[in-house]
Amino acid sequence: MADPAVAPQASHPKLEELLRHIVGLLEKHRLVETLVERDRTSPRHRLIESLVHRQHLVELQRKLSNLHPADVAYLLEALPQEDRLLIWRQIGEGRSGDVLLEVSDAVRDSLVEILERPELLRVLGSLDADDLAELADAIPEDVLADVSRNLPARDRDWLQTTMAYPEDRVGRLMSQDVLTVRETQRVEQVLRLLRGREDLPPNTDSLFVVDARHQLKGVLPLRALLLNDPARRVGELKLTDPVVFGADEAAADAARAFERYDLISAPVVNERGKLLGRLTVDAVVDFIREESEEDALNRAGLRGDEDLFAPIWDSARNRWLWLSVNLCTAFVASRAIGLFENTISQIVALATLMPIVAGIGGNSGNQTTALVVRGLALGEITPDNKGYLVLKELGVGLMNGLVWGATVGLFAYLLYWNLPLGLVMAAAMLLNLLLAALVGVAIPLLLHRIGRDPALGSSVLLTFITDGMGFFIFLGLATLFLV
């Protein structure tokens, strides 16, 4: 993790101001470089070029050296790739690894791809085993093998242990920085041991009580050490029912537990109850942020790791899958309209009213889908309450259909002074909102059932169904009752 001793920026507006200043420096740097390039015939060209480089780059280095690694990561993510690389070159060698930890997965991948192998080895060499485990999926296997060979045996074993777990498991997020004590130790002994350390691991709010076989026996909060008699034993003060996680547990479940119980750290054990490591709130927050960002992009049919400033080819290719799906679904929806060309030719008003039915249905369905995806992410939806959820959303769809169906029906009547048209509009709106509610629940539940991300492309699929069926329902009712 990034060095907590470096203070982060106070607020996001200050970061935006800093970004504008950095962009201004880069623009001046490019402008002077261009002028110098035009004056290559001057004997003083090399001297001028050297001074110009030094002036701007020194100021960049000074700015970056005072920033928290997370703030430097923000700058890298907000700059195009050419400027990003220039900024990266100005980061001190001792801080590059911390910045690499903080940037998004997409930006990290782009940096790893363009860095020369010796430089990448140098950056990774400054990181510990926990940090390397976090970066493992972004690092080429041969580079990771070279870096791990330089680690102490204990750290090398730890790296192999954590990498054996999938990304979405607690074992992948746990840290080896644990402080353990024995039940027989006295408070004064433990305090003496703590004072003998140079520092405590970040987010340490408790010590873990273990026996001779390293089996977890309880948790000793730091406050218990400070508020009790120095002669008391650890076994008398330990908590015997702490929140404990298995290394194979889902990280999403652990994240919910951290939020529910306001945890700062918690022990991680194997299936036999042996203490393996600890899970801390900073790792959990990082996991939650990455998952939420990925879900937000997945709902729109994007991969969760696209770089905002990626090359045009890469960004375009990333969007092809769901654009092709959307194109196919649009053709299907257009054929639904084509089935009723005769009806539309007789009542031209239908062509202007169709988008209203489809648009409101899609919006209502997206609201339902968002709630269901959130419920699945929080573990609030279970096999026992799925039926109630479907009925509840159908009830919401029915109420909204009656209210807004009547509204658009009245609007259609006042616009064309045609009562049957208004009634058809109201009925189509009611039926499409009921359909949107049903589909809005069904799509994420089905994706979750088959082991896929419930947010993946849900918006695209929902829009296809509500558009196609909205057109079909509206034009079908019009054909039955108006023609």
Topology (elements, then pairings):
Layout: H1 12-38, H2 45-65, H3 69-77, H4 81-89, H5 93-102, H6 105-114, H7 117-124, H8 129-135, H9 141-149, H10 153-163, H11 170-173, E1 180-181, H12 187-195, E2 206-210, E3 216-221, H13 222-227, H14 234-237, E4 245-246, H15 251-261, E5 265-269, E6 275-280, H16 281-298, H17 312-318, H18 320-338, H19 341-346, H20 349-377, H21 386-416, H22 419-449, H23 458-481
Parallel strand pairs: 1-2, 4-5
Antiparallel strand pairs: 2-3, 5-6
Helix pairs in contact: 1-2, 3-5, 7-9, 8-10, 15-16, 18-23, 20-21, 20-22, 20-23, 21-22, 22-23
Describe the structure.
The protein has 483 residues and is mainly alpha-helical. The protein folds into three domains: 12-166, MgtE N-terminal fold (Alpha Horseshoe); 180-294, CBS-domain (Roll), CATH 3.10.580; 319-481, SLC41 divalent cation transporters, integral membrane domain (Tetracycline Repressor, domain 2, Orthogonal Bundle). It has helices at 12-38, 45-65, 69-77, 81-89, 93-102, 105-114, 117-124, 129-135, 141-149, 153-163, 170-173, 187-195, 222-227, 234-237, 251-261, 281-298, 312-318, 320-338, 341-346, 349-377, 386-416, 419-449, 458-481, and strands at residues 180-181, 206-210, 216-221, 245-246, 265-269, 275-280. A three-stranded mixed β-sheet has the order 1-2-3. A three-stranded mixed β-sheet has the order 4-5-6. α1 (12-38) runs antiparallel to α2, α3 packs across α5 (93-102) and α18 runs parallel beside α23. Mean pLDDT is 85; it is low at 4-10.
